[in-house]
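We were asked to recover a plausible sequence for a given structure. The inputs and outputs are reproduced exactly as logged, with field labels preserved.

PROBLEM: sequence recovery
POSITIONS: 450
GIVEN STRUCTURE:
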């Protein structure tokens, strides 16, 4: 079997290997429509190979298939060694993996994961410097269409000129609104706060982001003496967050309309197969909404759900929202569709989810004295785990650790001591390639005696 990344006549190889384990790629477009050839190969080959446990991993923001592959290589290459530890294997199993590829978008100045040095955990490589116009220009493939292209051109021009004019700041926010697509049909009360990005007072929005993401090391003019320079810095970060929220919406669509139905097909093709879902960032939202898209919830093949630094509401699975007890989260009840445990890693060092995610949802119309309450209201899973679900709390342990997993119940893993590398604006959001995290996932899947 060819390694991942090799090609065959007429396109991508349908199956490959990562560290000796069978691996498939599965691509979807923004509406959740899959690559048919990849689906056909998966449905035929998984049963034919006698796979007993299939780990399905979904990336967060990336720019292309190659970057998604790097994520899957870094994660799954650790699996065989952990399974082979003396006394680790929980029983005989034939493990394989799937890497989901979906159209998300990482800003060009975000760091990328790199291969581990000296046998340690993977690192994060700083992106090449890019000026504001180049960063905005790079977004065009994520926002197709002439209208959006014109809006991006105008946004780039405003960031270049940075006029000392409140009307220009308001125009920038209006253009942000033109980028936003249709409302998120999957979004519920707990996950719609980001509307404040385009509805709240623009100077208040941009000021909040300027405070949250100070200019590293520059201080001076843009942060102290230059009011408009500071606000334009905040405008850029608000635009970054808006584009990421668009990817969050897309993740829900691809999960519910694309991956979920396919998981049902896969379970029907291989009735004894256990499927273990792993998602990072917005990919965590994608695999969660895949549960909502299962064609027959009573015949779910999903045995485990593992959310790595999830970038969606920590109340998504709640039966009752703390802010509105008469309503539940967007995924109320779907935890019952997982035959085993649900696990969420979180870290206070994840600035993307812990600071920027809720900040985008705050409004100057709210009582400033309740800011901490509002941050909790709009918080993300990757910051403090799943909330209002009677979750068990535990620190992420070393390789070999045991965990009190329970079927259908959340275990929140405090990963502060491990997931802690990364600079602003995202912090440690992508610092996930640690053997401790991989072990916890294998243990949750029942593949190691953890």
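RECOVERED SEQUENCE:
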């Amino acid at each position: 079997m060819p390694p991942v990344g090799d090609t065959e006549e007429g396109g991508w190889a349908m199956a490959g290997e990562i560290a000796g384990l069978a691996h498939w790629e599965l691509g979807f477009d923004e509406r959740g429509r899959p690559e048919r050839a990849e689906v056909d190969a998966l449905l035929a080959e998984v049963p034919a190979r006698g796979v007993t446990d299939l780990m399905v991993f979904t990336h967060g923001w990336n720019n292309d298939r190659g970057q998604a592959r790097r994520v899957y290589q870094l994660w799954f290459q650790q699996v065989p060694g952990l399974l082979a530890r003396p006394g680790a294997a929980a029983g005989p199993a034939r493990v394989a993996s799937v890497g989901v590829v979906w159209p998300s978008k990482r800003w060009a100045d975000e760091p990328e994961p790199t291969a581990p040095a000296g046998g340690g955990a993977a690192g994060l490589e700083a992106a090449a410097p890019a000026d504001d116009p180049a960063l905005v220009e790079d977004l065009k493939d994520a926002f197709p269409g002439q209208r959006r292209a014109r809006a991006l051109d105008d946004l780039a021009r405003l960031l270049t000129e940075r006029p000392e004019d409140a009307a220009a700041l308001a125009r920038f926010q209006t253009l942000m609104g033109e980028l936003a697509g249709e409302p998120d049909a999957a979004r519920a009360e707990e996950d719609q706060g980001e509307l404040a990005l385009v509805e709240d007072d623009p100077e208040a929005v941009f000021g909040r982001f300027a405070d949250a993401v100070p200019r590293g090391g520059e201080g001076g003019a843009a942060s102290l003496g230059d009011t408009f320079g500071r606000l334009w810095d905040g405008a850029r970060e608000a635009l970054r967050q808006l584009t990421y929220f668009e990817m969050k919406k897309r993740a829900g669509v691809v999960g519910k309309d694309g991956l979920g139905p396919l998981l049902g097909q896969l379970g029907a093709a291989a009735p004894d197969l256990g499927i273990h879902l792993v998602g990072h960032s917005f990919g965590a939202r994608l695999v969660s909404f895949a549960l909502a898209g299962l064609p027959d919830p009573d015949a779910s093949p999903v045995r485990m759900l593992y959310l790595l630094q999830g970038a969606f509401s920590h109340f998504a699975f709640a039966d009752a929202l703390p802010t509105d007890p008469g309503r539940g989260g967007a995924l109320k009840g779907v935890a019952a569709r997982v035959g085993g445990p649900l696990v969420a890693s979180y870290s206070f060092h994840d600035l993307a989810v812990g600071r920027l995610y809720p900040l985008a949802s705050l409004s100057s119309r709210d009582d400033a004295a309740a800011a901490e309450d509002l941050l909790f209201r709009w918080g993300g899973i990757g910051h403090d785990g799943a909330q209002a679900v009677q979750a068990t709390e535990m620190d992420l342990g070393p390789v070999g650790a045991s965990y009190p997993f329970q079927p259908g119940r959340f275990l929140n893993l405090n990963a502060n001591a491990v997931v802690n590398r990364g600079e602003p604006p995202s912090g440690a959001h992508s610092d996930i390639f640690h053997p401790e995290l991989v072990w916890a996932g294998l243990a949750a899947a029942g593949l190691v005696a953890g």
